[in-house]
Each structure stands twice: as structure tokens, then as C-alpha cells.
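Subject: sequence -> C-alpha cells, single chain

Hey, anyone have a minute? Need the predicted structure for the following. Not urgent.
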Amino acid sequence: MNQRNLPTICLFILTGIVLCVALQQGKTIFAPVLSALLLGVILTPLSDFWDRLRFPPALSAALSVLLALLIILTLLLLLEPYVTDVINRAPLIWEELRSTVEELRRTLRGVEKIAEDVAAAIETDAGAGGSADGDAVALPSITEALFFAPQFAAQCLIFAGTLYFFLMVKNDLYAWVSAASFKLGEGDLRMAGQQVSRYVLTISAINLGLGVIVMIVMELLGMPSPVLWGLLAFALNFLLYLGPMAMISMLTVTGIVVFDGPTSFMPALIYFVLNATEAQFVTPMMVGRSLSVNPLTVFLSLVFWMWLWGPIGGIIAIPLLIWCITILKCLPSAPLAEEQAEASQA
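Reply:
Had a minute. Here:
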């Protein structure tokens, strides 16, 4: 290694560490800001549609923000009754799990100590989550709700404000970056935004189809709340690798509670087959090679951003990765074009 490059490498590593610490400590601000910027990039086709209609920038940005918030609110409203139903059934679920663990403890004599620990842990959680009169799990107190409400409201305000102003000045911002950079043009930024938008819209359509199929299958199997399972399949499939694993775990637990014998594992097995088919055949065919990303890079990106910001980081990890890869592909294009032009003139 060249000793002249050693200080540069050390400075680069220290800068990365400081940046990671800053992002993690300031996630209450940086997470909604970066999420809003990525959503603004995803909404590029919608912004271009308003521009073609010659809407004023302020009006087009307001319409885009309202539409995005309406979609998010609709998803929350669809999920709310099913989540409430699951919370109300929590004591019954814990009781079924306790009975299952008791049966396993009697069957697996060789691991009796482990089964006793698991049963004790479940009984403890059941006692903390429900009371003798069948109450649901304990909800946050009024004091806790009032403590977290302003912080959540502030993050929503930061998200909506950043999204609105980014959409309003997006064209000017692209022009400013293009003028300030010799290697990155306005067309490159727009192409990166279009790539991210295309990826997210395609994946959303695929996940919607998967969610509908999962809902129908769960209804045929007799699983409770099939609509909830369809919505979970749709939402969790955005978290590559980790989302399907969580879905399989939940289906396994619920199958053990609802069914008896080998049928208990049928919901998880069918979902695994559907998800594998989607991941191996449907997504590669519809996404195409232009948006394909190395699986190792995807996994490391998911791990990094979920370590930083939790579920929000997992949602933004892949769109941000695609945007960065597209930008990096555009960076060498300008110098290479100049070299080719000089060579042709010579």
C-alpha cells in the first residue's frame, strides 16, 4: 500500500464512522427528511405529469403531497381493524401457545428443561399482557401517549414539509446541482429518479399481486383475518429477505394455534412457495437487468439501514441503493465522453 494514500484512507474511515454516528443519533430528524426526499424522487412521474399540465410548482407539489398522504392514511385505516382484532385475541393466542409448549414438553423428554423455560416465558408474557377477565394486552398510559405524541407529530410535519418543498423546487435543485458539478448533469439526476420510481412502482405492483394471492389462499385454508395476511404479505415483501422471514414465522405460530397436526405448517409452507416463486421468477422478469442489484449488496444495505433507523431504514434501503448505483454509473460518463470526442478529433 502506498504510504501517501494511508492518511486519505484513515480520513475516509473516520468520516464514515462520524457520519454513521450522526445519522443514528439524529434519526428523529434525518429519517423523515431522507424518507421524504426518496418519496419525492419516487413521485417523479407524477410531478412530470403536473408539469405537462402547466400547473404552478406550489400547486403540483401540494397535490402530490396530498395524494401520497392519502395513500398512506388509507393503508393505515385498512390495517387498523385487523390489528385491533389481533390485539383483542392476544390472551387466546398466548393460551394456545402455552398449551402447545406443554405438549412439546411431554413429547420431547430429552429437552424438557428448554421446554420448561419457554413455557415459563410465555406464561409470564401472558400474565403481563392479559388479565383474568380476558383483557387485551396493556396499552400505553395517557402520560406515555402524550409524551410520544409531540415527537411523532413533529416527525410527520418534517416529513410532509420536506416532501412538499422538495417537489416544489425539484427542477431548480437539479439545475443547481448540474451547474455546480462537472460530472453530474441534470439528465443524470432525472434518470436516477426515474429508475427508482420505476423500481418502486414495479415492486409495488408485484407485492400487491402477492398480497391478493396470499389473502385468497389464507381464506381457503380457513386462517383467521385473511385480509390482514394479505396486507402483511404486501407490506413485508418490501423488506427483502427479512420481511418474508418474519411472515413465515408469524404464519407458523398462527398455524400452530389454529390447526392441529401437520396442517399447522401448511400456511407457512404455501407462503414460502409463493414468495420463492415471486422472488425467483416474477420479480426478475418484470424488473429486468437494468434494475437488478447484487444480492449481497442488497442484504448489506438492509442490515446497515435497519441498524441505523429500524423499520424505516429497511424501507428506504433498496430505493436509496438503486439511486446511488445509478448516480455512480453516471459519474464516469462525462470524462469518458470527452476522451472519446478528443480521440475522434485526433
